[in-house]
Amino acid sequence: MIRLILGGDKSGKSDFGLQRLYEGTMPSLLLATGRAQDFSFGQQILDHRLARNPEIPVKETGIELPRLLEKSILEYQSILIDSLDFWVFACNKQWEQAQDAFLHTLSLVPEKTQVTIVSCEAGLGPIAASSQVRQFIRRLGALNQAVAAVSDEVCLMIAGIPLYVKKA
């Protein structure tokens, strides 16, 4: 079971993903892709850490998300990946190989394993003025589309309310 949860910044997507993780079969794992680059994001990561169940292990992935996910689907029944947008930042120049590796790993997820993936919905904002931001938005949008295509369930979070776009 692969579930994709999309939404804008502060839409409630991470909290909803965490709820799905808690409802899943144990053992559970959180694969965190974001790394603090400034104080406010560091505080956001700390707030998330304090709010979640301390019994659930957390692994920080960086660019290694596909490799860690492939290993984890053999050990854990429920996995939360939060979030793809930070992973896209981490991949930078290795983008094409990283995206291919991630999509391949998703094809290996056993039916009994629940993988919940959180990502920002890239297409809701204005067209970016800089080429770097446009490149990021296009990469994230293409990745979201590819993940949605292989997902059993796709949910868009709006103001903390899940709207199911694709239901298992």
From TrEMBL:
It is an enzyme of class 2 (transferase). GO terms for molecular function: adenosylcobinamide kinase activity; ATP binding; cobinamide phosphate guanylyltransferase activity; GTP binding. Keywords: ATP-binding, Cobalamin biosynthesis, GTP-binding, Kinase, Nucleotide-binding, Nucleotidyltransferase, Transferase. It catalyses: adenosylcob(III)inamide + ATP = adenosylcob(III)inamide phosphate + ADP + H(+); adenosylcob(III)inamide phosphate + GTP + H(+) = adenosylcob(III)inamide-GDP + diphosphate; adenosylcob(III)inamide + GTP = adenosylcob(III)inamide phosphate + GDP + H(+). It comes from the Bacteria. Its EC number is 2.7.1.156, 2.7.7.62. Pathway: Cofactor biosynthesis; adenosylcobalamin biosynthesis; adenosylcobalamin from cob(II)yrinate a,c-diamide: step 5/7; Cofactor biosynthesis; adenosylcobalamin biosynthesis; adenosylcobalamin from cob(II)yrinate a,c-diamide: step 6/7. One of its GO terms (biological process) is cobalamin biosynthetic process. InterPro entries: CobU/CobP (IPR003203), P-loop_NTPase (IPR027417). It holds the Pfam family CobU. PANTHER family: BIFUNCTIONAL ADENOSYLCOBALAMIN BIOSYNTHESIS PROTEIN COBU, PTHR34848. Catalyzes ATP-dependent phosphorylation of adenosylcobinamide and addition of GMP to adenosylcobinamide phosphate. Belongs to the CobU/CobP family. This is Adenosylcobinamide kinase. It comes from Halodesulfovibrio aestuarii.
